[in-house]
Amino acid sequence: MRRQPNPNRADLYVTTDTTESDKTRGSDPAPEVTNVSDRIVEQFESIKRTRRRRALGWTGLLGFIIFVTIQAFAATELLDPDARIGTLLASLNEFFPITYYFDVIPFLDFGRYISFIRDANLLYDPEIGRLLFQLPPSATDVYAFFFTEFGIFQIFGEAGITLAMGFVGTVVGFPFALVFGTLGSGRVTPFPFNFIFRGTMSFIRAVPAIVWTLIFIPFLGLGPASAALAIAFDTIGNLGRLFVDELEEIEEGPVEAIRTTGANKPQIVFFGMLSQVRTAFIGWTLYVLEINVRIAVTVGVIGAGGLGFVVTAQQNLLQFTNMMATLISIFLLIISVELFSQRLRSRLRSDDVKMGLWELITGFPRRMATSALK
């Protein structure tokens, strides 16, 4: 006998079908979860492959740098067994004279350095200094010091000549650098006319200062004059480029404010642009002064005068102790200029504590101790 379905149990069939349908729909997320897991694994593998490639790339670059470095050492003959490095190490006593106290304790004989610095007038010229430092003071000699001998730089001997070359080069080169740097900015001079000034500064920078000195020797002779003019040319290229970069980074707001007042082009440039970079320009000029004093030492090596010339002369005479004394004088000159320039630049910063000259000098040991303990 065929069994008839009971209408009262229809909900069972519906429930059964619904449950089976839910099971079917519930099985759908399983492949989706699997796909997500696969993508995560694939992305992780991709990251590992990228890291491996990057590690191989850095390894290859390091190997290439080492290879090129070896080639450079070979080209400079430092790998030559006949190189004089061993001889230099053996002859250090000529640069650093050692004296023995009680025939036991070795000390560096600074007395020999001081004697040569004094005898060669590297840091002080007594002939010029006696006009200023005398008891009782003479008004005639003081007048002669400032207005006849012009001894402000000459009183420092050979170091003063080196300092004067760097100072003159900075003073003469600054106005030209300011003009070329301003006109070389795209904010002041439209493209491509600004590249006339940029190209000129690039050409000046391409020629080292020592080569500029050789160029000016036929006109001014071999001496401080040609060196100072060469440093001035070098200042135009280097300082002018720094001025261009500063002008490219100025804010547009003040420029627009000046323009809306109906100002003409020179007024916009002076009050809207240069006013924003005045402090930066002064800071860069002081920094270039430091560089120019170093350049003055370099050009002095070829005979332009100053401490650089003394180094060359003592080296040619094989007087290495005197040569080392001159290097000490160069260090004292450079560090003095850097300290002076640094303090001036710090006073330009609004957040720095202002100090007078006397406080700056007398408080130097305390500031050094405080800085060392930080």
From TrEMBL:
<feature type="transmembrane region" description="Helical">
    <location>
        <begin position="163"/>
        <end position="185"/>
    </location>
</feature>
<feature type="domain" description="ABC transmembrane type-1">
    <location>
        <begin position="159"/>
        <end position="341"/>
    </location>
</feature>
<keyword id="KW-0812">Transmembrane</keyword>
<feature type="transmembrane region" description="Helical">
    <location>
        <begin position="295"/>
        <end position="314"/>
    </location>
</feature>
<dbReference type="InterPro" id="IPR005479">
    <property type="entry name" value="CPAse_ATP-bd"/>
</dbReference>
<feature type="transmembrane region" description="Helical">
    <location>
        <begin position="268"/>
        <end position="288"/>
    </location>
</feature>
<dbReference type="InterPro" id="IPR035906">
    <property type="entry name" value="MetI-like_sf"/>
</dbReference>
<dbReference type="Pfam" id="PF00528">
    <property type="entry name" value="BPD_transp_1"/>
</dbReference>
<dbReference type="GO" id="GO:0005524">
    <property type="term" value="F:ATP binding"/>
</dbReference>
<keyword id="KW-0472">Membrane</keyword>
<feature type="region of interest" description="Disordered">
    <location>
        <begin position="1"/>
        <end position="33"/>
    </location>
</feature>
<dbReference type="GO" id="GO:0005886">
    <property type="term" value="C:plasma membrane"/>
</dbReference>
<feature type="transmembrane region" description="Helical">
    <location>
        <begin position="320"/>
        <end position="340"/>
    </location>
</feature>
<feature type="transmembrane region" description="Helical">
    <location>
        <begin position="55"/>
        <end position="75"/>
    </location>
</feature>
<protein>
    <submittedName>
        <fullName>Phosphonate ABC transporter, permease protein PhnE</fullName>
    </submittedName>
</protein>
<keyword id="KW-1133">Transmembrane helix</keyword>
<keyword id="KW-1003">Cell membrane</keyword>
<dbReference type="InterPro" id="IPR000515">
    <property type="entry name" value="MetI-like"/>
</dbReference>
<dbReference type="InterPro" id="IPR005769">
    <property type="entry name" value="PhnE/PtxC"/>
</dbReference>
<dbReference type="GO" id="GO:0015416">
    <property type="term" value="F:ABC-type phosphonate transporter activity"/>
</dbReference>
<keyword id="KW-0813">Transport</keyword>
<comment type="similarity">
    <text>Belongs to the binding-protein-dependent transport system permease family.</text>
</comment>
<feature type="transmembrane region" description="Helical">
    <location>
        <begin position="206"/>
        <end position="233"/>
    </location>
</feature>
